[in-house]
Amino acid sequence: MSTFTINNRVHYYEINSQRLASPVTVLNFFEEVAARQSEECGYGLGKLMSQGQIWILTNWSIQMERYPGWMEDVIVETKVCSFERFYAYREFKIRDKNKMILGTADSRWIFYDLKRNRPVRVPPDIAVVFGVDGMQAAGGRFPEIESAESCEQKLEFMVRLSDIDMYRHVNNTRYVEWMLEAVPVDVHREYLPVKIEVAYKKETVYGSRVISCAAQKQRDDGGIEFLHQVTDKITGAELARAATQWKRVE
Questions:
Q1: How far is Cα 38 from Cα 49, in angstroms, rounded to an integer?
Q2: DSSP letter at 201?
Q3: How far is CA 14 from the centre of its chain?
Q4: Cα 248 to Cα 25, 153, 181, 186, 196, distances in angstroms
Q5: What is the pLDDT of residues 172-212, one digit of tens each?
Q6: SS3 for 227?
Q7: Which SS3 state, helix, strand or coil, does residue 40 take?
Q8: Which CATH number fits domain 4-129: 3.10.129.10, 3.10.310.30, 3.40.640.10, 3.30.70.20?
């Protein structure tokens, strides 16, 4: 398995009120390194789109030990661990300049054929260029996320042009941004999300209106947990759900 690495610096526009990189910033770092590796391997976004194929993200599982601060240099790395039928499993790490791990993430992607409008098997030549030895079973990494039955916090958003990616769908980091916005501001001031589990269910497009809700759960260790759900305002269809665990800032 081949590891691909890029160097980043946390910019002023990427930090929160605590002068730390936001969770969405970290996800953007992860997405960037994945896209850059794909380009380096010869199977970048442009080539796949010309063949009517795309990767669709289905799951995130993120664990953060520490969020990097403003102007901090970080090392972001990724590798494709395995392919299984039409799934790809990709890992990420973010490190400080001394190579200490700040956070890790697992992700699952579906290889999708736009012309046939369905998932298709990952071609063997893609496994070769990513340094993966054939197709390997890798299920079980992403347990089902509990549904947010009753939500104390709800916010409505309209999908803007700035939310849309090159596939003309909402970028997956936007769903996480909407979810975190529904968490009370007092929590944001005193806590940071240290674990984020996300499952994407259905796409949404420009002009849609969505509802983000968050239901709080108290933990025995003194931390806070939220269950999140993003739904279409008109149809009620579930677009994404998540579970986040928060730790008090020291």
A1: 13
A2: -
A3: 16
A4: 20, 20, 18, 11, 15
A5: 999 999 999 999 999 999 999 999 999 999 999 999 999 99
A6: strand
A7: helix
A8: 3.10.129.10
